[in-house]
Amino acid sequence: MDGKERIQLITLTHPPTPSPTMKVLILSTTERTGGGAIAAKRLGVALRKNGIDAKMLVRDKQTSDSWVYAKGTLLPKILERLSIMALLFKPLRKTWQYDLASHGIDILSTKEYREADIIHLHWINQGLLSLGQLNKILLSGKRVVWTMHDEWPFRGIIHYTDEGTNHPLTNNPIAWLERRLFNIKQEIYQRGNITFVGCSQWISDLAKQAMPQARVRHINNCIPQEIFFPQDVKACREAFALPENAKLILFTCQKVTDKRKGMSYLLEALQYLQSKDIHLVVVGGEAEQVLNSVNGLDKSRIHFIPYVNGEKEMARLYSAVDCFVTPSLQDNLPNTIAEAMSCGTPCVGFNAGGIPEMITHMHDGYVAKYCDSQDLARGIECALSHPEWKETALNSARKNYSETNVAKLYSEIYTH
Fold it and tell me: Are 206 and 149 in contact (CB under 8 A)?
């Protein structure tokens, strides 16, 4: 990490005056890849719908939207990954949960940054924004809002701790690096006007514990309800060649082999439900690798969908199933739960992270005991036997993930 870039101090006599029309610049490493990027893009759409001049600046632009701008290359990511591999003595495949923010793209030179009154950070890791650039942004006098999609903003190098513990690396040989990065971040945060926003109350509370002096708010992600809404079940099942009369449960994640997503617990839960006519629908990378290794389950009841083409198709899949299951062991405010509920599909998940805030137990879904496969099975069976939960799930989603309400709450932060 370049010490000059990281610690450079700039003295300001007159911070910039906001323009009559508030301009917001959303920063995200990618435009559409990952839950944090999806939430950031949806927020940008919601802000623009509600009269706020919002633009988005990303490294990886993935649509033709004219208000999304691209900057930079993969070189900073490569350099940052090499640095962390050298420091942690680990291969690349085992470093995804760590980030140094030692290298970044020159965001500050862009026209979009110069014109913005509000800099709204989302998931900015793996080579988008370095700590040195973050320091300069805060010293510039611009108002900064940071929506936290994981714990990295208020930790050192890690994105998630085990069960949210505040001292995750106390007995770890790299604890010194965790402490050092945490202290550097705290010094930087004190140099400007920054508000942290947690997508869940769970992560907001963790941030307050780690940074008692920081301004921390809680605002849910928003869901585009013109895309995610209940659709005809029969037609949706036909579209995906799913059995018409079976009870269908859905599991989806970016990479099924990610242990944090809890696929092993779901497969164990299905062992308890073998006497029921319950079929599992799986969407996600490396799903076949997991399912081919499963013993003792009727493979004819497992339906692997390798690819879903966009949000509209995903909404049809949510509508096709009877229940959405998210056995995540660590999660903030999963977009998938909000999307499923917006389609009138009840959800079952573990009591982990922000999940129990989203599912009202025995009202619109079931919150199972943490890492308890038998209770997860009980929750699935319960959700399938309460068809009235479909309506309550839909009502909960409309209330909690409204684009207009979320845009209004962020607008209040921008202006106060």
Answer: no
Q: Measured between alpha carbons, how far is 176 from 167 in angstroms, rounded to an integer?
A: 12
Please state the pTM of the whole predicted model.
Answer: 0.88
- Kindly report the CATH class assigned to 233-400: alpha beta
pLDDT per residue as tens, the chain (416 positions): 444 343 333 333 333 343 457 899 999 999 999 999 999 999 999 999 999 999 999 999 999 999 999 999 999 999 999 998 988 888 877 788 899 999 999 999 999 999 999 999 999 999 999 999 999 999 999 999 999 999 999 999 999 886 444 444 445 657 889 999 999 999 999 999 999 999 999 999 999 999 999 999 999 999 999 999 999 999 999 999 999 999 999 999 888 888 889 998 999 999 999 878 899 999 987 777 766 666 677 878 889 888 898 999 999 999 999 999 999 998 888 999 999 999 999 999 999 999 999 999 999 999 999 999 999 999 999 999 999 999 999 999 999 999 999 999 999 999 98
CATH topology of domain 3-222+402-415: Rossmann fold (3.40.50)
If one counts every other C-beta atom within 10 angstroms of the C-beta of residue 377, the result is 22
In this structure, what token pair is assigned to residue 339?
């999307």
All CATH 3.40.50.2000 domain ranges of the chain, comma separated, are 3-222+402-415, 233-400
Report angle CA 364, 370, 375 to the nearest 5 degrees.
65
Per the CB < 8 A criterion, the answer to whether 31 and 24 are in contact is no
Burial of 249 per CB tally in 10 Å (0-12, 13-18, 19+): buried
